[in-house]
From TrEMBL:
The chain crosses the membrane at residues 6-30, 42-64, 84-103, 115-133, 153-171, 192-211, 231-251, 258-287, 307-332, 468-492, 498-517. It is a multi-pass membrane protein. The keyword Hydrolase does not apply. Keywords: Membrane, Phosphate transport, Transmembrane, Transmembrane helix, Transport. InterPro entries: Phos_transporter (IPR001204). This is Phosphate transporter. It comes from the Bacteria. It holds the Pfam family PHO4. The keyword Transport applies.
Length: 757
C-alpha cells in the first residue's frame, strides 16, 4: 500500500493538471483576447487562430519557468518525499476549485497569485506540523519557507496593479490627444510612427519575455539584446516605422489592426510560456520527485527532497500536450467568454449594459475624482483645455442601444495601446527579474486606458469603478482563500493520508461537476424565451404588435409570482417564498431595463409617429406598477414567514385563494389574447374589472369585522390588508394596461417599423 498511494497521487496529479489547464485558460484568456475582441479589429475566428498559434509557441518555450513550483516558495531540502507530495496534492486540489469558482462568477483572477499563495499555505501548514513535532518556535518557519522570495512576489504584484493603471492611463491620454477619435483621417505618417512604436515594444516583449528560455534565442541575438537594448530598440523602431509606412501606402493595410493581431499573438505566447508553470509546474515537480524517490530505495518518510533544488528541463512532449489542451480549451470554453466579457464591459466606451451595482466606495471615489478633475481644470489654460477636449470628441454616429452590444466596445487606438503598454510593462519587469501577474497588468492597463479615454462618464463611472473594485477585491480574496484552503487541505491530507486523499478528490470532482451543471443551466436561462425584448417599431400599431409577446410574458410570470406568493403563505414555506421573491425582483429589473431604453426608443421616432412614444411610455408605466405590486407582495410574504410570525388563519388563506383563482382566469385570458394577437378578446377581460374590485372590497370588509371581534394578531392583520390593497393596485395597473391596448389597437392599419439600415 505504501508505494501504491504515491503512484495513485502521481496519476491523480496528472488528471488534476489537465483539469487545471482547462480552468486556468478559461480564466487567463482575458489577458490576450480582451483588446482584440473589444475592438472587433479582426474577426473572432482570426483572433482565436492567432491566439492559438501564440499559445503553441509559448508552451514549447516554457521549460525554464518551472522552477518557481520546485523551490521558489519553500526550501525543498527541509522536507522529505512524503511531505512534498502532500504539499503538491493540496496545491492542485485548491487551485482547481479556486479558479473554477472565479470562472463561474465570470471574474478574472490571477493564476500566479493563486499558485504562489497555495504553495505558501500548504508548505506553511506542513512546516508548522514539523515544528510542533520538534518542539521548535514559530521563528523556525524561516528555515522551511523562502520568506524573502514570497515577500518579493507579493510586493511586486501589488505594485504592478498601481503602475499598470497609471501608465495605461497616461499613454492613452497622450495617444488620444495626438491622434484623436478620428484616427482614420490622420496622415499615414502618424499611423506609421504609432505602428513603429507599438510593434517595437511587442517585438522586444516577445524576445525578452516569451522566448528567453527557448533554444532559438540563444547566441548572438540574445547577447545583443541583453547588452545593447537601446540600440536594438532604436533600430527596431526605424525598421518598423518605415515598414508600416510602406505597407499602409502601397497595400492600404490598417496598421492598427496589424498591431492588435501581433499584440494578441505576443500576449498569448507570453501567457503560455510563463503561466504554464501555474498549471503543470506542480504535477511535473511531483512526477520528478516520485522518480527520484523510486530510484533511491529509501523510505518515503526519510528521503530528503534537496534534489528538487537542481535545475531540470521539462520534457518537450509534456509541454506540447499542455499547449494542445490550452488551445482546445480556448476554442470551446464558454466560461472563458464570460471572463472576457467582464473585462470588455468594464472598458466599454458607451454606456452598454452595466454588470455591477454601485457601492459606497465607488460613489466616493467618483465624487473625489470629479472634484480633483475640476481643480486641475482651473490650472490648465482654457485654450489648451479646449484643444485637448476637441481630440476627445466622439464621432457622432448614432446607434440604437439594442445594437450597442454588436458595436466595438472601444476603438483600434485604445486596443493597440492596451497591448503595447501591457507588453512593455511585462518586458521591463521580466528583464529586471521582478515577479508580476499578467492578469493584473493586462486588466489594469485596460481600466487605465478606458479612464483616460473618458469612457467612464457621468452615466457609467460609478458602475465601472464598482466593477474594478469588485475584481480587485476578488484578487485579495484569491490570495487569502488560496493560502487558507491549501493549508487546511495539506493538514487534512497529512493526518488522514489515503482516506483523506480519496475523499478530497471525490469532493473536488463533485464541486466541479456541480459548478459546470449550474453554469450551463444559467447560460440556458439567459438564452430562454422568458426575457423581455426591446421595442424598435416607430408607430403605435407597430409597438402594439411588437410588445404583445412582452405583455404575454409579463402576464404569465405575474400569474406565477402571485400564485406562488399565496401558495408559499398557505404552506408557510420560507424557501419557496425566497425563490418567488427573487423571481419578482428579476421581473422588476427586466421591466426597469425596458424603461431605461425609453430615451433610445424616442430617439428613433420620426415626426409622423411621435404618438407611439406616448403609448410606449404609458405601457412602461403600467408594467412598472404591476411589477412593483408583485415585488411588494413577494417581499411582505417572505418577511412574514422569515420573521416567524403566526400563520394566516384558514379563512384568510381561503379568501386569498379565491382572489388568486379569479386573477388566474384573468391572467390566462389576457395571456391568450396577447399570444394570439387577438386584441378584441381584451374587451371580455375588461368586463370582469368591477367584479374583481368588488371581490377584493368584500374581503377587506370581512377582515375589518374580524379584526373588531376575533382577530388577535396585529402582524397577520397588517399582512392581510397589505396583500388585499396591493392586489387591488395590481388589478388596477393591469386593467389600465388592457384599456390602453384595447383603445389604441386598429387591425386595419399595417404596423410601421424602423427601416433597418
Amino acid at each position: 500500500m505504501g508505494e501504491n498511494i504515491y503512484i495513485f497521487m502521481v496519476v491523480a496529479l496528472g488528471i488534476l493538471a489537465i483539469t487545471d489547464l482547462v480552468v486556468g485558460v478559461s480564466n487567463d484568456a482575458v489577458n490576450f483576447l480582451n483588446s482584440a475582441i473589444g475592438s472587433k479589429a479582426i474577426s473572432f475566428r482570426t483572433i482565436m487562430i492567432v491566439a492559438s498559434v501564440g499559445i503553441a509557441f509559448g508552451a514549447i518555450s516554457s521549460s525554464g519557468m518551472m522552477e518557481v513550483a520546485r523551490k521558489g516558495i519553500f526550501n525543498p531540502g527541509e522536507f522529505v518525499f512524503e511531505e512534498i507530495m502532500f504539499i503538491f496534492m493540496a496545491v492542485m486540489i485548491t487551485d482547481i476549485l479556486l479558479l473554477d469558482f472565479f470562472n463561474t462568477l465570470g471574474m478574472p483572477t490571477s493564476t500566479t497569485v493563486s499558485i504562489v499563495f497555495e504553495l505558501l499555505g500548504a508548505s506553511v501548514a506542513i512546516s508548522l506540523i514539523k515544528i510542533a513535532d520538534t518542539q521548535g518556535g514559530f521563528s523556525d518557519l524561516a528555515t522551511y519557507i523562502n520568506t524573502d522570495k514570497a515577500a518579493e512576489i507579493i510586493f511586486g504584484i501589488l505594485l504592478s496593479v498601481f503602475i499598470a493603471f497609471s501608465i495605461g492611463a497616461l499613454v492613452q491620454f497622450v495617444s488620444r490627444t495626438l491622434i484623436s477619435f478620428k484616427f482614420q483621417n490622420r496622415s499615414k505618417w502618424v499611423e506609421s510612427v504609432f505602428g513603429g512604436l507599438a510593434i517595437t515594444a511587442i517585438v522586444y516583449f516577445i524576445l525578452v519575455k516569451g522566448l528567453k528560455s527557448a533554444a532559438l534565442f540563444d547566441g548572438v541575438l540574445s547577447e545583443f539584446v541583453a547588452t545593447q537594448p537601446l540600440a536594438f530598440l532604436a533600430g527596431n523602431f526605424v525598421f518598423w516605422t518605415m515598414g508600416s509606412f510602406i505597407v499602409a501606402n502601397l497595400l492600404k493595410w490598417n496598421i492598427y489592426r496589424i498591431v492588435i493581431g501581433f499584440g494578441t499573438f505576443a500576449l498569448a505566447m507570453a501567457f503560455a510560456g510563463n503561466d504554464l508553470v501555474n498549471f503543470i509546474g506542480v504535477p511535473i515537480a511531483a512526477l520528478q520527485s516520485y522518480q527520484d524517490w523510486q530510484a533511491s530505495g529509501i523510505a518515503p518518510g526519510d528521503f530528503n527532497m534537496r534534489g528538487l533544488a537542481a535545475a531540470v528541463q521539462t520534457p518537450t512532449m509534456l509541454l506540447l500536450l499542455s499547449g494542445a489542451v490550452m488551445v482546445i480549451t480556448l476554442w470551446f470554453s464558454s466560461k472563458a467568454k464570460g471572463v472576457v466579457k467582464t473585462s470588455v464591459d468594464l472598458a466599454r466606451q458607451d454606456e452598454g449594459d452595466e454588470r455591477f451595482q454601485p457601492n459606497y466606495l465607488s460613489r466616493q471615489i467618483v465624487k473625489f475624482s470629479i472634484g480633483a478633475f475640476e481643480n486641475i481644470s482651473k490650472i490648465v489654460p482654457p485654450s489648451i483645455q479646449s484643444k485637448i477636449d476637441k481630440q476627445f470628441v466622439l464621432p457622432q454616429t448614432y446607434v440604437p442601444k439594442s445594437k450597442t452590444q454588436e458595436q466595438p466596445a472601444f476603438d483600434l487606438v485604445r486596443a493597440s495601446v492596451n497591448l503595447m503598454v501591457a507588453s512593455v510593462l511585462i518586458s521591463i519587469a521580466t528583464s529586471m527579474k521582478l515577479p508580476l501577474s499578467t492578469t493584473y497588468v493586462t486588466f489594469m492597463v485596460a481600466m487605465g486606458t478606458s479612464l483616460a479615454d473618458r469612457a467612464w462618464g457621468a452615466e457609467s463611472a460609478v458602475y465601472r469603478v464598482a466593477g474594478v473594485l469588485n475584481v480587485i477585491g476578488g484578487w485579495f480574496f484569491t490570495a487569502l482563500s488560496a493560502f487558507v484552503a491549501a493549508a487546511l487541505i495539506a493538514y487534512l491530507l497529512f493526518v488522514g493520508k489515503f482516506v483523506s486523499l480519496v475523499l478530497m478528490l471525490i469532493a473536488a470532482a463533485a464541486i466541479l461537476l456541480r459548478n459546470y451543471i449550474s453554469h450551463n443551466k444559467k447560460t440556458k436561462e439567459i438564452k430562454a424565451e422568458d426575457s423581455l425584448r426591446r421595442a424598435e417599431s416607430s408607430s403605435i400599431q407597430g409597438v402594439i404588435e411588437e410588445t404583445a409577446a412582452n405583455i404575454a410574458n409579463v402576464v404569465k410570470r405575474s400569474n406565477r409570482i402571485y400564485s406562488n406568493s399565496m401558495q408559499g403563505l398557505s404552506k408557510h414555506d420560507l424557501d419557496f417564498l425566497k425563490k418567488n421573491k427573487k423571481q419578482s425582483k428579476k421581473l422588476a429589473n427586466e421591466i426597469e431595463g425596458l424603461r431605461n431604453d425609453t430615451f433610445y426608443f424616442i430617439k428613433n421616432l420620426d415626426e409622423a409617429h411621435v404618438g407611439a412614444s406616448n403609448f410606449y411610455i404609458n405601457v412602461m408605466g403600467h408594467l412598472t406598477d404591476m411589477s412593483q405590486s408583485l415585488e411588494y407582495i413577494g417581499k411582505v410574504s417572505y418577511n412574514h414567514v422569515n420573521n416567524n410570525h403566526k400563520k394566516l388563519k384558514y379563512n384568510q388563506i381561503k379568501e386569498l385563494k379565491e382572489i388568486d383563482a379569479a386573477l388566474e382566469n384573468v391572467f390566462n385570458s389576457t395571456q391568450k389574447a396577447f399570444e394570439d394577437r387577438s386584441f378584441e378578446q381584451i374587451g371580455t377581460v375588461l368586463n370582469s374589472k368591477e367584479k374583481l374590485y368588488e371581490m377584493v372590497s368584500q374581503k377587506i370588509n370581512q377582515q375589518v369585522s374580524r379584526t373588531r371581534t376575533e382577530e388577535s394578531s396585529p402582524k397577520n392583520t397588517t399582512l392581510y390588508f397589505s396583500l388585499l390593497l396591493e392586489s387591488k393596485d395590481l388589478i388596477t395597473a393591469m386593467m389600465n394596461l388592457l384599456e390602453q391596448y384595447y383603445a389604441e389597437h386598429d387591425s386595419s392599419i399595417t404596423p410601421a417599423t424602423i427601416e433597418k439600415k
